[in-house]
């Protein structure tokens, strides 16, 4: 009897299916549907989107992606109501069609008129369902559209109702290898939380986002620190950051090789140390010399002032050398002035 490793076989088969799906899509998309002259082009291409042949639908979508780079053609798509017809394609039985439709929507969100139309259409609800799509490529494209919308205040407001689902997806993605999806998720949550942090906080926002701060991928660390900064403007979030021991992790990020990670971490620390608990939880030596405002807030509490006084020689040393970075010298001088001031 020959024993077979069925788990390995199933996994290999899954990879083959994913590779076949991607290869098929790339092969089909080498071709575009013929484009009619002038204003007839858009109506004729949209007419082909209802064809029973998936290859024809894909070719029509490819041509539409090319045309919508032209603002005049894009305006025609929106003003003549063609955008709403894409809802059917988001439910298409072919994963490649759903994926390409998301790519088309991502392209049109670069224009304000299309973004406004998309936010007021039924497409947004259908897009949220694609976050659970069986195709990894389709899920990624759907996240891109969501994130593009969330970058605007109107989009972030429209996505507020989806924050609970986004938090659930973040929890599910803990062990996933789809790093782009995790980064997009965190970026979207950050945008939504800047508008209103309460929904994310009520769904374990500090804990779930805090776990991403130590991720190996710098994009994920950057977006996680940005989301933590957005959350930490609320007093209850400041307390949770301290209770969950997130401050030491943020302090470690001040030494990150990615400057944007450092900046976002410093912002989250600055917000948190406003409260007394945050003052006591922060370590002055960890904050040096990244953030003047965080150091100033820390010095306002008696315990924080005492700790900074112990670091005074280091502060003075970093405030004087001309070869030191100008921002570092300025931060150190500010800290020295704060802790040595007497009435």
From TrEMBL:
Keyword Ligase attached: no
Residue stretches of each HEAT repeat: 246-283
Keywords attached to this entry: Coiled coil
InterPro entries for the chain: ARM-like, ARM-type_fold, HEAT_type_2, RSP14, TPR_DAAF5
Residues in coiled coil: 156-187
Pfam families to which the protein is assigned, alphabetical: TPR_DNAAF5 (PF25757)
Protein name: Radial spoke head 14 homolog
Source organism of the structure: Hippocampus comes (Tiger tail seahorse)
């Amino acid at each position: 009897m020959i024993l077979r490793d069925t788990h390995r076989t199933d996994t290999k088969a899954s990879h083959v299916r994913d590779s076949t799906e991607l290869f098929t899509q790339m092969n089909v998309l080498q071709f575009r549907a013929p484009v009619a002259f002038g204003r007839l082009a858009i109506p004729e291409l949209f007419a082909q989107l209802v064809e029973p042949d998936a290859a024809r639908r894909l070719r029509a979508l490819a041509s539409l992606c090319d045309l919508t780079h032209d603002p005049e053609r894009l305006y025609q798509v929106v003003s003549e109501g063609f955008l709403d017809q894409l809802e059917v394609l988001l439910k298409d039985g072919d994963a490649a069609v759903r994926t390409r439709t998301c790519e088309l929507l991502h392209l049109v969100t670069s224009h304000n008129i299309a973004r406004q139309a998309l936010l007021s259409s039924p497409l947004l609800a259908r897009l949220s369902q694609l976050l659970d799509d069986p195709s990894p490529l389709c899920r990624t494209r759907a996240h891109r559209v969501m994130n593009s919308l969330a970058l605007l205040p109107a989009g972030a407001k429209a996505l507020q109702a989806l924050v609970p689902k986004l938090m659930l997806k973040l929890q599910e993605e803990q062990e996933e290898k789809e790093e782009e999806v995790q980064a997009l998720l965190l970026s979207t949550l950050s945008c939504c939380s800047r508008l209103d942090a309460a929904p994310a906080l009520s769904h374990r926002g500090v804990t779930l986002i805090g776990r991403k701060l130590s991720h190996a991928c710098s994009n994920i660390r950057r977006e996680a620190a940005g989301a933590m900064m957005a959350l930490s403007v609320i007093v209850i979030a400041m307390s949770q950051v301290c209770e969950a021991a997130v401050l030491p992790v943020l302090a470690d990020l001040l030494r990150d090789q990615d400057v944007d990670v450092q900046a976002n971490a410093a912002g989250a620390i600055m917000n948190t140390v406003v409260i007394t608990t945050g003052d006591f939880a922060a370590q002055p030596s960890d904050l040096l010399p990244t953030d003047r405002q965080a150091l100033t807030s820390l010095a306002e509490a008696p315990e924080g002032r005492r700790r900074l006084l112990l670091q005074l020689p280091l502060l003075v040393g970093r405030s004087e050398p001309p070869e030191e970075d100008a921002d570092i010298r300025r931060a150190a001088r500010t800290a020295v002035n704060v802790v040595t001031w007497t009435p």
